[in-house]
Amino acid sequence: MVYTPSSTELATFNRDGVVCLRGVITPALTDILAKGIDECLARPGPKGRNFNTDGSPGRFAGDVFMWTFNDHIRQFVRECPLGDIAAAYMSSARAMLMLDQMFVKEPNTPSKSPWHQDQTYMYADGEQLCSFWVAVDPVTRESGAVEWVKTSHASGTLYKATGFDPNITYETDDYADLPDIEGHRQSYDIVSFETQPGDVILNHLRTVHAAPGNHTTRRRRAIAFRYAGDDARYVVRKKGSRPIREPGLQPGDPLACDIFPVVYPRSQMAVPA
Ligand SMILES: O=C(O)CCC(=O)C(=O)O
Questions:
Q1: Does 2 have pLDDT greater than 80?
Q2: pLDDT of 198-226, one tens digit each?
Q3: CA neighbours closer than 13 Å in the CB half-sphere of residue 128
Q4: DSSP line for 104-118
Q5: 103 lines ligand 1 (CB under 6 A)
Q6: CB 118 less than 6 A from any atom of ligand 1
Q7: Which of 20, 60, 99, 103 should be mutated for ligand 1, with most atoms under 8 A from CB?
């Protein structure tokens, strides 16, 4: 499929660094993704963890590279249109899946997701980098809708990475200190989107964002799918997070390989069935 973004949505993405696309994922694929999430919660992968290790209530669970060990997530990755859409928004001939990353906030989980950019945790630098935030439950502000600082991708500034789990630190000293956004919210143009299953939020990997806790009795199960285009180059950050296995790339290499597989064009689909 060749996906063509509407000119309004493309302009919004380029200007703001974030856009909400409605009704992109079919109910059947949403069900497959929900099954995969529940299986990964029950049987986490090697990097699966709870972020709220500080004794706070509820459960804030994360996992990564689930497509490598969970059949439902892998089926979703192969069949969903996100790679096609990513290639179109990135203006790239190809799209590679760089990471799938789960963020589940179970009912009454006040844990916040800190302000951060995705790029400083990620395995590539470049302009053609984007991510989709996909929830399988209806999401409201009260249940933890992600908040985005509009235009924060535009200057190219990279900020030090912040650990979601207070016990994890990153050494990304070469990057700028993140400003105190929470303390000066009125100085920023912050947007959030309430979503239904099927909707996705597309962000540039430099767009700064955070999320409140889930203060409802409903689940908030989400996965972010991070994609890279042809201009992305492999990077090893100082004490940054590492992929689930070493990709066998040198810094500066193009990304496509078995753990950063091509997903678009579909004729080159490298995620195994
Ligand atoms: O869902 C969340 O709470 C955080 C999501 C996020 O930070 C991300 O997608 O990078």
A1: no
A2: 999 999 999 999 999 999 999 999 999 99
A3: 23
A4: EE-SSB-PPEEEE-S
A5: yes
A6: yes
A7: 103
Query: Which of 2.60.120.620, 3.40.50.9100, 2.40.320.10, 3.10.350.10 would CATH assign to domain 25-227?
Result: 2.60.120.620
Cβ–ligand 1 contact at 234 (below 6 Å)? no
Q: Is the CB of 104 under 6 A from ligand 1?
A: no
- What is the domain partition of the chain in residue ranges? 25-227
Q: Which two tokens stand for residue 231?
A: 């201009």
Distance 1 CA to ligand 1 centre (A): 28
Q: How confident is the model at residue 182 (pLDDT cuts 50, 70, 90)?
A: very high
- d(CA 123, CA 125) in angstroms, rounded, equals 7
From atom 8 of ligand 1, which residue's Cα is the shortest distance away? 224
The model's pLDDT over 44-87, given as tens digits with 9 standing for 90+, comes to 999 999 998 888 899 999 999 999 999 999 999 999 999 999 99
CA–CA distance, 269 with 262 (Å, rounded to integer): 6
Residue 255 has pLDDT above 90, yes or no: yes
